[in-house]
Amino acid sequence: MRTEQVELTREEIYREWLGLNNPAPTCYGLLGVPELESDENAIQYAARRVKRKLRAYQIGLYRKQALEILAEVGQAVSVLTNAEKKRAYDNDLVRRWRAAIEELYQTHCKTPMPEPAAVELWLSACLARGISVTRLMPRLMRALESRSEDWVRQGEVQVSFPISLWLYRDVIILGQCLHVGTLEQRSEAVKQVQKLLGVPEGLVRLMVEEVARGLHLFTGTRIVRQAQRKPDEVLLRLARRIRRFGGHVGPRCKVLAAAATLVGKHKRDLEHVLQRMDELPVDLLPIQAAAMQARRAKEKVEEAGHRAWEVKDRAKAWVASHPQVLVGLAAVTGVAALVLAYLVATGHWRPFGESAPLRDLLSVERPAKQPGWAPPPPKPSATEHAPAEALPDVVTPDLIPVLQDLRDFIKNRPTGTGAGITLPPLKLPEPPSKGQTPPVKPPSKDPKNGGSEIKFFGVEGTPATPAAKDKPPDVKPLVPAPKS
Questions:
Q1: Cα separation of 158 and 152, whole Å?
Q2: Total number of domains in the chain
């Protein structure tokens, strides 16, 4: 019986005990959960399953190595179940992945629009570095779509090449993780989607092998859990993704029909699913619903812009292929302009009303301006008359005939400019009533002093002349009377 301790390398332990082909797995890969998994219950369940496998090697020749792997599993659980530690670990993991992915992208895909063969080499190199390409496919394809906007649209739904890979990745996961129908039916549906989307064989083999190799990792993905509970939501999700990236979605969409076969739905169910495309998902938070509404509004604006550009490009192409049409339009426009100009000049057509012909207006000789000439003041309109000044309340009898003649002249004036003027009635001065003295003009001399000058505040004097303006007046102060 063999009693000596046997040493195995970490790579052999990961491959033979846990079924991992990565020599340096992450905490997610060690536990067998999808990358960046956020469900704590799924993490705890996967940790118990891995520990159950390792305890089978804890008693025997591999006790020491089994205990070391168990310690790693415990440390991975403590990191992924703590919110702060998990956030820091995820950020560091994504940073490392981005650095490796960018380095490999610059190596294999240097052109602005990479070929499918170059994309295949790039993803194969990422997979060799231990990066789960299929699990990170949504992020990678979004980045690849933003790198180049000139991807050729191909396939039945007319979407770009990166979005085709993303859609096909979900179809492969559904076909291998959901056991709906027979194996032949699922394989035929997956092959049909591959033909409809135009995915190359090399990329198909890469994704299929990775999903089959880590099938226990993909059974816990969101799309599989959603397909098990609500298959309609999966079809609705795929349809929204196709329409979001400018693809064609309709009741006869063969890609959605094949996906319906994989989740156990009939083709007739697609009509009910497509009627709900404008609805928001039920399990969204308010902030997520608001973000989705804003994204849909933006997509509608972008779609309208794309359609306008398409119409403009078609118009340009049609004009470029029919130059004789432009020549004919230019000739017709020139002849029409000449005819209209002749009609206006001769007075046969007056587009601006009844006025003199243009030739008569041009032949009028205007007087030259004299050296002292000034423009006359503008005449006020009928609505801009200045208010008439009111006549005095007291009119002497000798002025009444003159004013009466003036009133008649204004009323009978031919131009009628005085039509809006109202004159007050003429009246004679009323005699003063009893007990009321008529207004008297103040005298310039004081009658009490024998006609001498008026005293103002007890001071005698004459008004100051301009020569004596600055001289002080001669003031005689009043002497108080002696007391008796």
A1: 9
A2: 3
Same domain (yes/no): 215, 245: yes
Indicate if 209 and 253 belong to the same structural domain. Answer: yes
Whole-angstrom Cα distance, residue 439 to residue 297?
Answer: 86
- Domain span at 301: 287-314
pTM over 0.85: no
Could you identify the residue written with the tokens 């159950």? 52
Cα separation of 170 and 182, whole Å? 19
Taken as a whole, the chain contains a residue count of 484
Q: 76: which residues sit within 8 A by CB, 6+ positions away?
A: 27, 30, 31, 47
Same domain, 159 and 264: yes
324: Cβ contacts below 8 Å, ≥ 6 apart = none
The amino acid occupying position 325 is V
What is the number of alpha carbons within 13 Å of residue 106 lying toward its C-beta? 5
The beta strands (E) that lie in 277-423 are given as none
- Structure tokens belonging to residue 275: 């009627």
pLDDT in tens, the chain (484 residues): 444 556 777 778 888 888 777 777 888 888 888 778 888 888 999 899 888 888 888 787 888 888 888 899 999 999 999 999 999 998 898 888 888 888 888 888 877 667 888 888 899 888 888 788 888 888 888 888 887 777 888 888 888 899 999 999 999 999 999 888 888 999 999 999 999 998 999 999 999 988 887 787 788 788 888 888 888 888 888 988 888 888 888 777 888 889 988 988 887 777 777 777 766 665 566 777 777 778 778 877 877 787 788 788 888 888 888 787 888 888 888 888 888 888 888 877 777 665 555 555 555 455 555 565 666 666 655 555 545 555 455 556 777 787 788 888 777 766 545 455 555 565 555 665 655 555 555 555 555 555 555 554 455 555 555 555 555 656 555 556 566 5
CA distance 74 to 287: 35
Whether residues 59 and 160 share a domain: the answer is no
Q: Residue 376 corresponds to which amino acid?
A: P
